[in-house]
Amino acid sequence: AHILSQRVVELHESQTLEMAAKARQLKAQGFDVINLTLGEPDFNTPEYIKEAAKKAIDENFSFYTPVPAILELREAIAAKLRRDNQLDVKAENIVVSTGAKQSLINTILALINPGDEVIVFAPYWVSYIPMIQLAQGKAVIVEGKIENGFKVNPQDLQNAITPKTKAVIYSSPSNPTGTVYSKEELKAFADILAPYENIYIIADEIYEYITFERNYWSIGAFENVKNRTITVNGFSKSFAMTGWRVGYIAAPKVIADACTKIQGQFTSATCSIAQKAALAAITGDISFTQEMKKAYLRRRDLVLDLLKDTPTIKTYVPQGAFYLFPDVSYYFGKSDGKTTIRNAYDLCMYLLNEAYVALVDGEGFGAKNCIRISFAAADEKLVEGVKRMKEALNRLK
Ligand code: PLP
């Protein structure tokens, strides 16, 4: 007899967490590891947000709240989405969860029946596939190529649609590529999907505030798909609040209610203190996010500049988030005399062991020729990390 369910046996461990754990291990042994695996801002949560949380504690705001969050927070989120994203939403469309991760699994569990197909834009965020698997759905991959800035071609989306398609999921800005879809590009997707009344769009906008080059656009603002779009967002990346665990969806009321029902059985509302902090964040002065964005832009340009004399690492220009996802397939089959590099995972292990630089390979993101470099790290670390990487890569012949 098996101890564990088939469900969990088939589930992959998060690759990003696995590489981060290996880096920590080496660090604990005393090695000077530069960790560029991280998917989180290296900034502290702003003071005004922390103050709101302290006040909530002192005022004993420590009881269960309504499952989708206190009304004030849902109203503030809806107001933000109307103002910044032109979404036609009210508090009743908002469900706040324990991180956008929970928002995503709620949504997938609310929509997907066994056998339903979910079109996933690749490279994709690592957790989409396991979440679809948990719902017994089937992921159908539509790939964006590096030559095209990792953007999915609308025709490929059209070709992937079948009578079983229930949803489409993507992130923009993308983790792991930093790709940002423009209003025109999103309109092309919306126009393709609009005639299919049974297809829902899950738009993961968690990196919304970290966009460098263009005005941000939300697909849920288009009239022809607004009743079938679930917009996912949260506080982790935009307000440097990863540990507070606050994410949300804006969805048609039937779907929002279904997510509240699921969440009501799993976890109930997210932490009451964190809700007060999120309320302060979203209603407060967001100039902090502008400063953070400037720092990421400077670091993006720094990393691109450091790599520009290394054409064997194929790059492109990310327009958002804090990742570079270069193609490193040039090194496959090369060796330093001891180790032969077969794939991106081997290359990451080589760089970790030989250069003490921790990165994540692209396999878990659906791109086996790539590695992910997070530039959510101090400038000096990026300079030193890329220097060490280049030295180690130069030894591969
Ligand atoms: N979506 C994307 C694309 C992400 O990169 C992340 C975090 O890494 C999440 C969702 C989940 O964010 P959280 O659960 O911290 O709100």
TrEMBL record:
Any one Gene Ontology BP term = amino acid metabolic process
* The UniProt record lists the keyword Transferase: yes
Extract the PROSITE patterns matched here. AA_TRANSFER_CLASS_1
As cofactor, the record names: pyridoxal 5'-phosphate
- Provide this UniProt record's keywords sorted from A to Z: Aminotransferase, Pyridoxal phosphate, Transferase
Domain Aminotransferase class I/classII large: start-end pairs: 32-384
**Alphabetized GO MF terms:** pyridoxal phosphate binding; transaminase activity
Family under the similarity heading: Belongs to the class-I pyridoxal-phosphate-dependent aminotransferase family.
Q: State the protein's name.
A: Aminotransferase
* Organism whose genome encodes this protein: Raineya orbicola
